[in-house]
Structure formats: structure tokens, C-alpha cells
Amino acid sequence: MSISDRSRKAMEDLGLTGYEIRVYTSLLETGAMTAADISKKSGVPYSKIYEVLNSLEDKGWLESDSSRPQQFFPRSPSTALEAMRLRNENNFRESQSVIVGELMPMYTKSGIKEKPEIWVVRGIYNIAAKVSEIVQECQQELLVALPSVAENVAKPMQPILRTLHERGVKISVLVSEETSPETVKALSRIADVRRKNGMFGGGIIGDGKYVVLLLGESMGDNGLIDPIAMLADHAGLAGFAKGYFQYLWEDARVPPAKKADR
Q1: Is there a single domain that holds both residue 226 and residue 127?
Q2: Which of 56, 66, 108, 261 is the most exposed place for a label (fewest CB within 10 A)?
């Protein structure tokens, strides 16, 4: 039985081996079989077949009966996945208890402090490079706060945002009331857009983990005014920033053009 590369990769990510996938999909196609028949159908060597079958049974993907010769048959994918989820959660809780119980006292006694991964980035080009890096790596959700002073950043970002939109990434963009209708219209094609009055700061939050916050401007070594941003790969700070973004989002106004589309 041939399955898509996407399904095969998903099964591998859950910890199934190539042999296990071949055996399970063979059972799905044919139904109950003996170990010898499964070996022939799947192409898994007979010397390995019982090891694979036992592993799949332990993982909850198949069952066997007490007939002679013994028959093996597949459990439904949804049942197998639920069994695997429950087992993994139980294993995680047990491991968590052991690790926290033994290692946390060692960590506390050592006096070591966690070091958040936070950097200050100066200069429009350096900031743009970091923003582009985070945006392109985004897989699920991108939150963008775009104050009027940063509107000129919106146009070069649109091709990247369009690519994310096509990949299924959820994009939310908060713009100021002063943002031009043309910019709002262009962004609305690829993102949910809302206007917020009196928005001064800006930044982006990628997948609830990575955050870039615009802090303001300072005098650079060359005597010119450089924008400053803070880049953080820190779940706590990103979570705080996301919470504040959601607060602003709920209080923001949906643009009239967006309302008309609905």
C-alpha cells in the first residue's frame, strides 16, 4: 500500500520506523495476516518480522489473537494515535517527576541564573535583516505591529508575507490610524488588519517565541540617528509581548474596506 510522503513523515515523527510503517500499511490494505504473510506482503525480512510486530503492538498500532498460526490485524489509526498520545503523556509526566525531583535541587544549589536570549540591534539594515529572518522562519502565526513611522517597511515585507499566507501561516497586522489606505488594502489581501489609534511602538512576534520590539532611536557612532530594536528568543518575553498585542488587537478597529469584504 502506497502512502504519501507527508503521511510517512508524520508517522516517522511519531517514532515509527520504516519497517513498522510498511508492516502497518500492509495490514491496512489486506487485513488480518500471519507473520509469514506480513513478511511477504511488506517486504520486511522474516528474521525481523516478530521484532517489528511486537514493537507495533507495544505502541498500540496492531493487535493479535491466539489462533494457530497467530493472526495480526491493525487497529484504527485514530485509536492507535490516541493510545500513543496517552502513553507519551504518561511517560512525560514520569520523566518530568524524576528529572525535576533530582536535578532542580542541584540547579538551585548551584546559584546559576537563567540567561534570557536578548539582544539590542541598531541600524535599519540590521533590524530589517533580523525581522526578515524571523518572518521567513515563521510556521504558524505572525503578529505585526506597524506604527506610522515604520509604514515604509510594509511594502518590502509584502512578498514575504504573501509567501507565509500561501503556506497557511495566520498573519495579524496592527496599523496606526495614520497608515495610508493603499497600505491597508494591500496588507488586507494577505492578513487580518486592524487600525489602532495612538499606537507608537511596533514590532513582530513569530510563533509566540521570537520577538523584535522597536525601542526608538539613538545617535550612532557616525553621528546619524539610528533606530534601535530589541531581539529576543525568550518564551516569557514573547508571551508577554503577545498578550499585549492581543490587548491592543481587541481594542482596535477593523478597516471599513475589510468590513465590506465580509
Answers
A1: yes
A2: 66
Contact 255, 188 (CB under 8 A): yes
State whether the Cα torsion 15-21-25-31 is positive or negative: negative
| CATH number of the CATH domain containing 42 | 1.10.10.10
Q: Are 126 and 11 in a shared domain?
A: no
The three-class DSSP label of residue 190 is: coil
Nearest to 207 by CA among 163, 142, 133: 142
Residue bearing the bigger pLDDT, 168 or 1: 168
Q: How many domains does the chain have?
A: 2
Distances (CA, A) of 236 to 74, 133, 144: 43, 20, 18
Are the C-beta atoms of 179 and 148 separated by less than 8 Å? yes
Grid cell listed for 195: 487600525
Q: Which domain holds residue 54?
A: 5-75
Burial (CB count within 10 angstroms: exposed 0-12, middle 13-18, buried 19+), residue 138 = buried
Count of positions (residues) in the chain: 262
What does the DSSP 8-state code read for residue 126? Answer: H
The C-alpha torsion from 179 through 185 and 186 to 192, rounded to 10°, is 90
What's the order of all strands across the beta sheet hosting 192-196? 118-122, 225-233, 210-219, 202-206, 141-146, 170-176, 192-196
Question: What predicted TM-score, i.e. pTM, was given to this entire model?
Answer: 0.49
DSSP state for residue 75 in the 8-state scheme = P
**Residues 210, 232: contact at Cβ < 8 Å?**
yes
